[in-house]
Design brief:
alpha+beta, 5-stranded antiparallel β-sheet, 3-stranded antiparallel β-sheet, 2 domains, de novo design (two linked rop proteins), OB fold (Dihydrolipoamide Acetyltransferase, E2P), 7 helices, elongated, 22% strand, binds zinc ion
Length: 251
């Protein structure tokens, strides 16, 4: 028997009575369980399974599959505001797309998601928390490079030079390594000021600093290009519409 805290991510009906339930577990990362009778009126699990809420699970393992023995509500978050609903749905979709690949540090990713859901629930720094979590997600899966040094030659970025991401990745190169790649399309360019602001922002646990102007839109647009390679996300287009139509700092 394994006991763990978990966030409810997705339910997928199977036939008329059962369902596959997806969770992000604190100790295990993403986990799916087959729950027989989930759609029946007598199900004890169904009334408790609500997307984005924190629960405690007791899981049994048989032949490398997880089965749910017990589930109780641990902590509720208010995700009902329309924009927050779209933002959180997108994050849950992203997490579900990595269902079969456990992150290297599941506890850390889990704590980041809890922090983000707290901010959503309290309606503060919504867009900043959303951006931060997406970068933490890439880090948790070993897909994010440093904002301090070049991902190719490992030299610290020169003080007054731009750094540029590699195509469709979150990995930044110094000018000389970038020019060697000869690539020009779909890249994110960061000025030294932007690099410092972003680096500071990601380390600021209390989110006292803000990312201003078009900068958050530029980052989100680049992140979307990265995720396009992971799959198609139902809420992706609405995310871009929301951040392009409004002022991200006000979200
Ligand atoms: Zn370099």
């Amino acid at each position: 028997m394994i006991q763990t805290s978990a966030i409810c991510l997705k339910q997928r009906p199977i036939g008329k009575t059962s369902a596959v339930l997806s969770f992000l577990c604190e100790r295990l990362g993403p986990v799916s369980v087959y729950e027989r009778g989930f759609q029946n009126a007598s199900s004890k699990i169904k009334p408790l399974f609500d997307l984005g809420q924190e629960v405690c699970l007791a899981l049994t393992v048989k032949e490398e599959r997880y089965y749910l023995s017990e589930m109780i509500l641990k902590q509720g978050f208010d995700l009902t505001d329309y924009r927050i609903l779209v933002f959180s749905s997108f994050l849950f979709e992203l997490l579900c797309s990595w269902q079969d690949n456990p992150p290297t540090r599941p506890e850390q990713l889990y704590q980041e998601l809890i922090k983000c859901l707290h901010d959503f629930s309290e309606k503060k720094k919504i867009f900043g928390s959303f951006l931060c979590f997406q970068i933490r997600l890439l880090e948790a899966y070993g897909l994010a490079g440093s904002l301090k040094q070049c991902g190719e030659c490992s030299q610290r970025f020169p003080e007054h030079e731009l750094c540029r991401s590699e195509e469709n990745t979150w990995n930044f190169l110094c000018s000389s390594c970038h020019h060697k790649t000869g690539r020009k399309k779909s890249i994110l360019e960061l000025s030294p000021e932007e690099r410092h602001a972003l680096s500071h922002y990601l380390q600021d646990r209390n989110r006292h600093s803000v990312l201003s102007g078009d900068f958050p839109v530029k980052i989100q647009t680049h992140l979307m290009r990265i995720y396009e390679e992971w799959g198609t996300f139902k809420s992706g287009a609405e995310i871009m519409r929301l951040i392009q139509s409004g002022k991200p700092e006000a979200l």
